[in-house]
């Protein structure tokens, strides 16, 4: 139905069935023009490029993202090249001279999990990870953990990257202690699973980016900062000097808006691509709700075709999360071993079917460039 948005990628890969779009999504054609526009603006503005970017392009991007998440204050969104930069900046806003207690899960993406694992080697860091499985009791167990101790930072994904489970982040944020920063990792849900942040916009930070379902490619991530936040991240950069500061003498001042979490020089090409994609989706009437409905229909068809195929490994019995109403845009199958999963991924690739895996978990991602014929063909190549 929406293949016309992706003609360049589809024509460049005519023999490929790309079902790894949760890992690297095809980009809409409009992103090529956006990439060239960044070059043209650079030649036009030269030294005035930063003024143009921060007065025109950044507000455009902030407004589009705020509309998707139903946020009241677009200026509370700040950009960086990757989420890890924000993760460490958030951690650097804590008092490392005292005990730091972090509550999270065992299913967070590597940008956070690797960093927090390294920090847990330090004596002042205590990290508690709540297992996401069994899924049926996850929310209750996480709430119990929040109540069991005082925390300095809470971090949880909206959609868990290794299962597809959708977390009820609104419920968790409302039950969380108000004095503790609560960070939602929305990278595997932004522009995929509908989320209304307005009820929790005064309490929750939100991390997202353009690489996956926002389809703008790598290099443009963002952080929503609650308006009352007054932090002084130790890891800071010159972009934080761009708005009015309260510095006195040599004091390091910080903005009162989202730029308190700003870093330094970055290539804003990806922001141009993200803006172009979000504007194109608006023109096409593609809201997150509509995109989600289309993908859910394709997932249901995929499972129906799987039942007919009766595959010994990839079937409803190995499907990790079966409730499509509370599911991200990829289906995860837990196979008997990492070796079996890796072998199957390689075999499917030789047949033109591209997926990806994490350990023993095989993932099939679904996008707007898939139709019924693609789904049936994909099942036939497993």
Please give a structural write-up.
- The protein is 37% helix and 14% strand.
- The chain is an alpha/beta fold.
- The chain folds into 2 domains: 3-28 and 286-380, Aspartate Aminotransferase, domain 1, CATH 3.90.1150.10; 31-281, Type I PLP-dependent aspartate aminotransferase-like (Major domain) (Aspartate Aminotransferase, domain 2).
- The longest helix has 22 residues, at 288-309.
- The two termini are 24 Å apart.
The CATH superfamily title of the largest domain: Type I PLP-dependent aspartate aminotransferase-like (Major domain)
Coarse structural class? alpha/beta
Shape field: globular
According to CATH, the fold-level topology of the largest domain is: Aspartate Aminotransferase, domain 2
Mean pLDDT over the full residue set: 95
Percent strand equals 5-15%
Question: What is the structure about, briefly put?
Answer:
The protein is α/β, with parallel strands linked by helices and 382 residues long.
